[in-house]
Amino acid sequence: MKTLKCGGAAAVLAALLFPAVSASAIADTLPGTGKTVRYVQADSLGANYVADQIVAKAMQSLGYDVKLSTMNITLFFAAVAQGDVDLSTDVNLPQREPEFRAVEKQAEIIGTGFIAGAG
């Protein structure tokens, strides 16, 4: 799984503070310019649906081309291990830990999630 870094957040802030700067100059400095993220949302309409939409829009605002797909999170683990998708923020740990352990050589957990220690 690819790690997303938000180093270009300064470019977004600069765009808000200095609107006279051309949009194309700012777009060239965004960290996601020219990069595609294959982002997975769960196939349930649970509470994470809204959060997934917010994360996708935030990545787009950083210049990433976000390809959003919907699948069962159990299938996400196989898809990420095969390199078919990059990221999901809809994985609940520790409930999904067994599925993650099966692919941990091909994937990684980034951060502690929306609710650290949730269960």
Which strand order do you get reading across the main beta sheet? Answer: 2-1-3
CATH structural class of the domain at 32-103: Alpha Beta
How would you name the CATH homologous superfamily of the domain at 32-103? Periplasmic binding protein-like II
Sheet of most strands: 3 strands, parallel
Q: State which percent range the strand residues make up.
A: 5-15%
Topology:
Blueprint: H1 9-17, H2 23-27, E1 36-42, H3 48-61, E2 65-71, H4 73-81, E3 87-88, H5 97-103
Parallel strand pairs: 1-2, 1-3
Overview of this protein structure:
37% of the residues lie in helices and 13% in strands. With 119 residues, it is of the alpha/beta class. The protein has a domain at 32-103: D-Maltodextrin-Binding Protein, domain 2 (3-Layer(aba) Sandwich), CATH 3.40.190. It has a three-stranded parallel β-sheet. Helix 4 packs parallel to helix 5 (97-103). The longest helix has 14 residues, at 48-61. It is globular. The relative contact order is 0.18. The model is unreliable at 1-22 (pLDDT under 50).
How would you summarize this macromolecular structure in one to three sentences?
By secondary structure, this protein is of the alpha/beta class. It has helices at 9-17, 23-27, 48-61, 73-81, 97-103, and strands spanning 36-42, 65-71, 87-88.
Keywords summarizing the entry:
119 residues; D-Maltodextrin-Binding Protein, domain 2; alpha/beta; globular; 3-stranded parallel sheet
